[in-house]
TrEMBL record:
It comes from the Eukaryota. The lineage of its organism: Eukaryota, Metazoa, Chordata, Craniata, Vertebrata. PROSITE patterns: RIBOSOMAL_L18E. Component of the large ribosomal subunit. The keyword Ribosomal protein applies. This is 60S ribosomal protein L18. It comes from Pteropus alecto (Black flying fox). Residues 116-241 form the Large ribosomal subunit protein uL15/eL18 domain. Belongs to the eukaryotic ribosomal protein eL18 family. One of its GO terms (molecular function) is RNA binding. One of its GO terms (biological process) is translation. It holds the Pfam family Ribosomal_L18. One of its GO terms (cellular component) is cytosolic large ribosomal subunit.
Length: 241
């Protein structure tokens, strides 16, 4: 009896001294699903276990972001960056040296700061508008505007291009100041003995804009405005379909 008790105590001590073995994997059970006929189908066997899920979570992480000298901040290595949506929100100045000479802009700006006249402020504002807003003015329309009472002997100031009109064969006495004049219009104006001034010359002749008439082409004369407005099928609509 004593030997039996001694053997049981030794076996129990050996069992306590051994480290615990691995636990059996626990299988994830899915809830039974109901078919469209109302029959409860058994849950399909799932191959993922707790151990497999732990191994899946230990997968390598995606590449980290880098911001070195050779790459852009926030870029991912191996991926191209799309720049087609990059825009600058600040308004840009005049980028056309042909249409807007630097001397004209600087001269008008200096005159507007010195004289503080409304004419110079309007001219300076129109110098820096976009090309779509700088609409051209035809020669016939300019002649028609200068025939209005009070416009005789004054200088026509156009912040844009004076285009040709084949219906005009003779030009009355005019004094023109424009950014650009077409070749045939220039020949007709000079042939009539008139003058074509630049903006720096006009700033010297009339610093405050005395004896001048500001003219501009139709702002909504472009073809794109024919499609804007009310629907072409609505009543009293003149919109082009």
């Amino acid at each position: 009896m004593q030997l039996l008790l001694l053997w049981i105590s030794v076996a129990w001590a050996n069992e306590q001294s051994q480290p615990p073995g691995p636990e059996p994997p626990q299988t994830l059970h899915l809830m039974p699903s109901t078919t469209r006929h109302g029959i409860i189908a058994p849950a399909p066997p799932h191959r993922w276990t707790v151990t497999a899920i732990a191994e899946e979570q230990a997968l390598p992480q995606p590449p980290k972001l880098f911001s070195g000298s050779g790459g852009r901040k926030g870029a991912i290595m191996g991926l191209d960056i799309r720049h087609n949506k990059d825009r600058k929100g600040l308004a840009q100045g005049a980028q056309e040296p042909g249409l807007l000479p630097k001397a004209a802009g600087q001269g008008v700006q200096a005159s507007s700061q010195t004289n503080n006249s409304i004419f110079n402020q309007v001219v300076l504002k129109r110098l820096f508008v976009s090309r779509t807003d700088r609409s051209p003015l035809s020669l016939s329309r300019m002649i028609q505007k200068m025939k209005i009472p009070g416009g005789e002997g004054k200088t026509a100031v156009v912040l844009g291009t004076i285009t040709d009109d084949v219906r005009v064969q003779e030009v009355p006495t005019l004094k023109v100041c424009a950014l650009r004049v077409s070749s045939r219009s220039q020949n007709l104006i000079l042939k009539a003995g008139d003058k074509i001034l630049t903006f720096d010359q006009m700033a010297l002749d009339s610093p405050k804009g005395c004896g001048t008439v500001l003219l501009s082409g139709p702002r909504k004369g472009r073809k794109v405005y024919r499609y804007l407005g009310k629907g072409h099928e609505t009543p009293h609509s003149h919109t082009k379909p």
